[in-house]
Design a protein that fits this description.
The chain has about 375 residues and is mainly beta. The chain is built from two helices and 30 strands. A hairpin with a 2-residue loop joins strand 27 and strand 28. Helix 1 packs across helix 2.
């Protein structure tokens, strides 16, 4: 028998296989009958498979309900099995359209034993994207620093807080702690990590948030002392002590600097009167405090093209453009945080802060436009 004589019988067998994969006439609410049939046909050649055994099943980015949803599969649908987590409670699957994710193993009917599947690693990694990064005991700057990671250091991602602004990581040394999500570089969405902490302030350490547009942090408890930093509304601080009159609070800010803030402009999680009184006269001189930022920081453009304007707003004219990966000098920011004042060559203007990664923490930049 020659090859041409085999073509027709093979075609008939393929059509029959497709016919028997069909679940029957689609019901009024069915939108995936044909896809399910082709999926089942493909599964004949794909090794381990499973059938969904519940009405609708979320496919998640990791092995647990805390991970984000990447797709939904339905009762009777067939999927390919790629592996499992260590205890077999979740399996990784691949859909007919190539999407991969994790589902609860109790809600599928597998073609093989779950224990026979390969155990897959479920951790993700990131790298430090700033000069030095404090690793803290909790998700916020009010928590103490337990380690410091350097630029480019690898981090294992363990989870996040509910707002996805802080990430729990493991260092190469084995130390575990929390880092600011905006200061690391990773190929996954932070929101896809499991939620490990609510992000609420630590009950072990009194804290407060700034309750005004801009608040000066000074080297001593009074407006006559030097300004060592300026914080914006909503930024957190750790409360360390107070003056006898409770008019000023001693605080620790994001970069570890200790200073004083007018208590009238702080929303605290404790009564100021419960803080210890700090005797300024007997306290050692604070010494030079770290500046919130160098006179001119640098930034890297993170957009294919970005307009630089005369002022901080879309209503201002365009003076030049910058492009992906280009380095710029950053002079400061607008009070609302939406714009950065930058220089490119001999041209100075304003660009959207959403598309520039700065070399220092964003809130450390000086406010140069109200």
């Amino acid at each position: 028998m020659n090859i041409k004589s085999l073509v027709k019988p093979l075609f008939v067998l393929l059509v029959l296989a497709l016919f028997f994969c069909l679940p029957g006439p689609a019901s009024a609410g069915s939108e995936w009958g044909f896809s399910a049939a082709t999926n089942r046909l493909a599964s004949l050649f794909s090794g381990a498979t499973a059938t969904i055994n519940t009405g609708a099943l979320n496919v998640r980015s990791g092995p647990g309900v805390a991970f984000g949803k990447v797709a939904v599969v339905y009762n009777g649908q067939t999927v390919n099995l790629l592996g499992r987590n260590a205890d077999g409670s979740w399996v990784k699957i691949k859909l007919y359209n190539g999407v991969e994710g994790w589902v609860n193993s109790t809600l599928i009917i597998p073609s093989v034993g779950i224990s026979s599947l390969t155990v897959l690693a479920t951790t993700s990694t990131a790298h430090v994207a700033t000069g030095n990064l404090n690793v803290r005991s909790g998700p916020g700057v009010t928590y103490s620093s337990i380690a410091v990671a350097g630029n480019g250091d690898a981090l294992t991602l363990l989870g996040r807080n509910s707002a996805a602004t802080w990430v729990k990581v493991r260092l190469a040394s084995g130390t575990e702690g929390w880092v600011n999500a905006s200061l690391i570089s990773t190929g996954i969405a932070i929101a896809s990590l499991p939620v490990l902490d609510s992000g609420a302030p630590s009950s072990a350490e009194p804290s407060a948030t700034v309750a005004t547009g801009a608040l000066n942090i000074r080297s001593g408890p009074g407006s006559g002392y030097n300004v060592i930093a300026t914080l914006t509304q909503g930024q957190p601080v750790a409360l360390l002590g107070r003056t006898a009159t409770t008019g000023w609070a001693q605080v620790r800010i994001y970069n570890g600097a200790v200073g004083w803030a007018n208590a009238a402009y702080l929303n605290a999680n404790v009564a100021f009167g419960s803080l210890p009184v700090v005797n300024v006269a007997s306290a050692p001189p604070p010494g030079p405090a770290p500046a919130p930022a160098p006179a001119a920081a640098t930034g890297t453009v993170k957009a294919s093209s970005l307009n630089v304007r005369h002022g901080p707003g879309l209503g201002y004219g365009v003076v030049t453009g910058v492009y992906w990966g280009q380095q710029v000098t950053v002079h400061g920011r607008s009070a609302d945080g939406g714009w950065l004042k930058i220089s490119v060559g001999n041209v100075t203007g304003w660009a959207s802060s959403h598309y520039i990664q700065t070399s220092v923490p964003f809130f450390a930049l000086a406010v140069v436009h109200a």
